[in-house]
Design brief:
Number of helices: 4
Helix content: 40-55%
Order of helices and strands: EHEEHHH
Structural class: mainly alpha
Number of strands: 3
Strand content: 5-15%
Shape: rod-shaped
Strand order of the largest sheet: 1-3-2
Largest sheet: 3 strands, antiparallel
């Protein structure tokens, strides 16, 4: 349901949860002109499920607008697009974290392994050896 609030969005967010640095959060409180629209996880879940099954088509958005209190098609479409962007950012962040971890492990392994010794050149049996000559 739409809620009109005098508090800033940031203040409301801080009260609802502890913000962890480096973590991605959906903006659950959206300013729409003079109204503040809030989104719940259940609403987000319903939007994602419906749009994954049938795509974000007008018919799907109209159906969702009927089931979600005080949300219109445009708001639902915008929310869906925001959630998709957030999921892509999370996927990219996970890939980057995995890459950094892989590089860290490679660096640790290379620092733990002593450098390989260069192979010794063996003298060939048919070449003369340097040093004093002992031929008689």
């Amino acid at each position: 349901k739409a809620v009109v609030s005098t508090q800033s969005t940031g203040e409301q967010e801080k009260r609802k949860r502890k913000i962890e640095p480096g973590r991605l959060y959906a903006n659950n409180i959206v300013e729409c002109g003079d109204k503040t629209v809030t989104w719940t996880r259940d609403e987000d879940r319903a939007i994602l499920k419906a749009c994954r099954r049938k795509g974000p088509r007008t018919k799907v958005l109209k159906s969702l607008a009927k089931t979600l209190d005080d949300k219109n098609e445009s708001q639902i479409k915008d929310r869906y697009e925001e959630l998709i962007k957030l999921m892509k950012k999370a996927e990219q962040a996970a890939k980057q974290a995995a890459y950094r971890e892989k590089m860290k492990l490679n660096a640790q392994q290379s620092s733990e392994t002593p450098p390989a010794k260069k192979p010794r050149l063996e003298s060939r049996s048919d070449s003369p050896k340097p040093g004093p000559s002992t031929s008689l």
